[in-house]
Fold this sequence. Notes:
Elements: E1 7-11, E2 15-20, E3 23-34, E4 41-42, H1 43-46, E5 47-52, E6 56-63, E7 66-73, E8 80-89, E9 94-105, E10 115-119, E11 124-128, E12 135-139, E13 143-146, E14 162-166, E15 169-171, E16 174-184, H2 191-199, H3 206-210, E17 219-221, H4 225-240, E18 242-245, E19 249-252, E20 255-256, E21 270-271, H5 272-284, H6 288-300, E22 312-313, H7 322-325, H8 334-350, H9 353-372, E23 396-399, H10 400-419, H11 423-444, E24 445-446, E25 451-452, E26 455-457, H12 467-476, H13 481-491, E27 497-498, E28 501-502, E29 522-523, H14 524-536, H15 540-548, E30 565-566, E31 580-581, H16 582-596, E32 599-602, E33 607-610, E34 620-628, E35 631-640, E36 643-650, E37 655-661, E38 664-670, E39 673-680
Parallel strand pairs: 33-37
Antiparallel strand pairs: 1-2, 2-3, 3-4, 3-9, 5-6, 6-7, 7-8, 8-16, 9-14, 10-11, 11-12, 12-16, 13-14, 15-16, 17-34, 18-19, 20-31, 21-22, 23-26, 24-25, 27-28, 29-30, 32-33, 34-35, 35-36, 36-39, 37-38
Amino acid sequence: MHGLRAFAGGYSEDGLEIWTFPLQIASHYQLEFVVPGQATVAGIDVLQSVEVDALTLSRRYQAPDFRVREFIYTHASHPGVRVRYEVEGRRDVQVRARFRPSLNLMWPAGVGGQEFGWDDAAKGLVLKEPSHRFEALVSSPQATDHSQPSNDRRGSEFGQPIFLQMQPQPCGRARCASLTFAGQSEAKETTTATTAALAQVQAPTAADYARFHDATRMRLTTPDADANRALLWAQLALEQAWTCNARLGCGLVAGYGPSHGSRRPQYAWYFAGDGLIGTRALVHSGQYARAAEELAFILKYQAPDNGMIWHEMSQSAGFLDWTGDYHYMYVHVDIAFGFLATLAEYDRATGDRAFLQKHWPAVRKVYDYCLSTLDPGDGLPRVPHDKMSANEQDKLSDELTLSASWVEAAQAMSRLAADMGDATLSAQAAKASERARISVRQRYRDVAQRRWISGFTHAGKPGESTSPADLAAIGSGAGTPEEDRALLQTLAAPAYLTAWGLRSKPDTAADYDPQAYSRGSVWGLGSASAAETMWKHGQGEQAADLWRRLVPWASYDSLGHMHEVMRGDRLEAQSESVPEQMWSSAAFLSAAISGLYGLEVDAATPSLSFHPQPPVDWNALKAENIRVGQSNVTLSWQRDASGERVEVDNDGPAFTLIWTTGQGEQKQVLERGRSTLRAGLR
């Protein structure tokens, strides 16, 4: 269950965690059912089903003589979680919520001296600490019993499981009770005010759901119901990743998963690199306002001295000297390169010159930082000894993926500078991009072995081939068409390709380890990005086949969401994998829009490129609410024995449709209303 300021999640058998970012209120939340004269029934023993939607987690419990429905949700930007229980059957069933109190900030901050007590007026358990800066209230109007504070010399430390018991009251044909977890980490907020606000709503409101049912969000329909569901949930996952922190602001978190022992819930904090992958998907799906917010959030924390883009921020960074006392903020050189490429995509799709104008000084500093990393001899970036690039497992001086991203970043800067009217900078950046493209081949192509070198250690030792590096070489344009085709054929071989995606390393490599994080495992991000590259290089069937292998990921673990990484030898989550990894969902969505559908918007023209490359057994595609300049456009594509047809509904000003068919490219200006275009078979 994901809210702007709160989160409840985990596995039912372990118990759920309750967070009001950056404060963890409780862990191991589970239910028990108390019936007079009978043994207490553990909720996990009678749990029948779990259902999720965009804002609600619902669980059904079925005992022989009673049934319980549990609804867990948030509301607006309140730092709290609300739980509602509906009990049918026996009228004397009481609901007991058990949990371990936490009242602690997200790693690496911490709160000491916690204690709990009972507030009779609030009918709740109060978690507090001596400074009174942080507090939590777990309360219910239907409370009948609760844990008592203990001063015993044994078993009384904070963190022992405690409970609150409730007697449901009549509510229609059922009996109902509610439980609220409210957190306080800011002076202007109180747990009582949050509890009162959440008590006014019995479920998420229309305003809450409006975040997930925006009329301008692109809607994609294919002949595959499972693929359609995965595409819809990829968009929902993007919005669920949008989190607001009272001290840091609002931005995309990297994902969600259970906490480790250090109170560090998996990825539920801010990563600029992950945010950029999410931003691409937001741009592709027409969520331009949210994309602009994320880009601005990333720039907000740009290094003031050298223009570097940051790597990660804990949700507790606002309570710490995060950049001074910790080394996590500015460690990845590659993110600055990715920022320029993503910004250029946003600029082209939206034509938002006001955003570019406002942030142009900061953008120039990003570009200057990229320039500062270049080796004057070949014009390619080098990784300083105290920094790293995308590969966190190997200490490399330079990487093919980083150098390829410089080719793209410099070209992106050329386009951005042109839009800002700086012809000199535009020409310089274009020249730097072309020089880098040539140098990539010279430095990383092993002609004798006919392979790409993934990078070099600081001692000059070349790295082995990896699928991300090979795909980066293709994307950079450094290879010949023959080399690219041969490489794509290699990636389709069993050594790389599994039934659930693309291995990061082939199982023939000397250091292949199917359980290792990056030496043979299967990444959702890597597989989706590979499919997108294949589509863009005309390998439609290979791309579609790979992309469709990711569809089952959306129902593997956390319903609707995609894991970070699977094992390389079987469809099983790698031990470190995050169950809800935003970039996996985002890359899956981006690959579908820019690859499967072949959609690209140019707001300045305005024009829409449409190059569908569906699997051979799909004869229809539909995309609704494509934002082209001031228009919302719907495309309905079909093919049959006679050829292809696309129906276009345009609700705004005229635009140019550039439709690539089996016979070539068609360009046509389409006015407001419906238009039908046809193309015969080749």
